[in-house]
Structure of Flavin reductase (DIM6/NTAB) family NADH-FMN oxidoreductase RutF:
Amino acid sequence: MKKSLGAKTLAFPTPAWAVATYDANGKPNAMLAAWAGLCCSKPPCVAVSLRAATHSHGAIVARKAFTVNVPSAAYVKQADYLGIASGRDADKFKTAGLTPVASELVDAPYIAEFPLVLECRLLQTVEIGLHTQFIGEIVDVKADDNVLNELGDLDMDRLRPVVFGPGTRHYYGVGEFLGKAFSIGRDL
């Protein structure tokens, strides 16, 4: 029998993504966000939910753009820092030893060291209680060569993305390969 845990944010796991923006002064900033995910396939879109109190919230509203940067396990410490400090008070890129790169497609930077980047143009904003959900149309995906397989597709084992456990507030790596999607269940 299942035990009720109440109404909580316990979808497990959630991505640990760094959302990067330029602030009003043009300073690059990034914050770690776990309330995020893909939300549409045509057009390709991603949604990130941020509190209005965050520095990044105002930047997305003003610039109408953001990038989603997927850290590899090798950068979990730097990614965590992006979620601890505020861009109002710190140069997070400098402190974390990360490199901002100006996107040529949207008015936002991306993080050079993180192996996967989604460049997004703000498509829609939805107010949901404490958070604002920003829906961004993905205008390009950039990936380091070393996270691609022989066919040019993303390889989870090479990417080694970080995921967040909202109940425990721990970071995890991605586990073993279980089977091919839209295939493994065909023999049932």
